[in-house]
Design goal:
Blueprint: H1 10-17, H2 62-72, H3 75-93, E1 123-133, H4 142-156, H5 168-171, E2 179-190, H6 201-205, E3 215-220, E4 228-230, E5 242-245, H7 261-270, E6 307-308, E7 311-312, H8 332-340
Length: 352
């Protein structure tokens, strides 16, 4: 199982030392440090999105968008450092609600893997939808948006009807994140643009509405075979939110990615989850203690067990690249990581 990085990297100190005085707290031996290599600029090979047969299956562009933002805005490193440091401190400070173990979480020996009472209660996130269309097919119906909201709520509350398919190896750490979503409004925009790409042009055309208190979701034709992308906590408020391919919503034409789980995956990124394989083969971590290492994304509907990096892959995790019908769980560690950003001082505290 993966462990949190608790050592102090020289690059972390060098990074902090070169910054101007601000609200940044320089790590000390009494705090959890963050290795700044966690936010390295990924290589083209890391982010290739290639399957074993060489086909381009890079359905999510969130990491490539982050990569570009890190290149263009050096200050983003500092913000993400702060987000990660706060996340790890919050998780480490929480005690398991079941310290004796018995539910697959490790008996309290590994921060973030056991269910915890973090005092935050059920977190509800209001959502604004921006439907941007150039033809009638892209102008998704209200019924599809309602169905998408149900998928989000079911998946994040462990109420999905396929949760019973989780293998026994992982069943004990399949998590109810205690996060819900409410549709705060839908805005429809007719626009002749046929393909918006992943450079946030659609957000510039239709800016997010109160992103500090609402999740903004743009539904449009992205192009290039991309299903979606999201902005991680710490980025600019002017581009904060999630972009979804219109045909990935329930009932859309993007089969086998048309059951609404592109939204579950992208909202996971928005709530600070990385891809399950860490976007760097076995050597790169996803910062979650109870998700096994892997050497890349899984596609289709893999058989269980699928073994990589000397362990069984959690192919059914929402943060992998499998078909919508074959992903159906978050882990307890992922739950802890998501909820940490809503805690006092967290990057998305204002949403709670």
């Amino acid at each position: 199982m993966k462990k949190f990085i608790l050592f102090f990297a020289i690059v972390a100190f060098a990074f902090v030392a070169c910054q101007e005085n601000s609200d940044e707290v320089t790590p000390t031996q009494e705090t959890l440090a963050v290795d700044m290599s966690d936010f390295y600029l990924y290589t083209d090979d890391d982010l290739s999105g290639k399957s074993a047969n060489g086909a381009n299956n890079d359905k999510c562009h969130s990491m490539k968008v982050l990569n570009q933002q890190l290149k263009e805005n050096p200050g983003l490193y500092k913000k993400m450092y702060n987000v990660e440091k706060h996340t790890r401190q919050f998780i480490a400070a929480k005690k398991p609600s079941n310290p004796g173990g018995g539910n697959g979480g490790g008996g309290g020996t590994d921060p973030g893997t056991d269910p915890v009472d973090d005092g935050l209660g059920v977190i509800n996130i209001p959502v604004y939808f921006h439907v941007v269309y150039s033809n009638s097919a892209e102008n998704v119906s209200d019924a599809q948006i309602t169905a998408q909201m149900k998928v989000l709520n079911d998946d994040f509350r462990k109420a999905n009807n396929d949760i019973n398919q989780v293998p026994s190896e992982f069943a004990g750490i399949a998590a109810d994140s205690e996060i819900t979503f409410t549709n705060a409004g839908t805005f429809r925009h007719s626009n002749s643009t046929s393909s918006w790409g992943t450079n946030n042009a659609v957000k510039s055309a239709y800016p997010p509405i109160t992103p500090s208190t609402h999740l903004n979701v743009w539904v449009c034709n992205i192009g290039g075979g991309i299903l979606g992308y999201a902005q991680f906590p710490g980025g600019s408020s002017s581009t904060d939110g999630v972009v979804l391919l219109y045909s990935s919503l329930p009932g859309g034409s993007a089969a086998p990615y048309n059951e609404g789980r592109t939204a579950t995956h992208e909202v996971g990124h928005y709530l600070n989850l990385r891809h399950i394989w860490g976007d760097g083969r076995c050597r790169q971590d996803d910062f979650v203690a109870d998700t096994p290492s892997s050497d890349g994304a899984n596609y289709g509907c893999p058989s269980y067990p699928t073994v990589n990096c000397k362990s069984n892959d959690m192919t059914m995790n929402y943060m992998d690249y499998t078909d919508d019908a074959c992903m159906y769980m978050f882990s307890e560690g992922q739950k802890s990581r998501m909820r940490a950003i809503f805690a006092p001082g967290g990057a998305r505290e204002s949403l709670n």
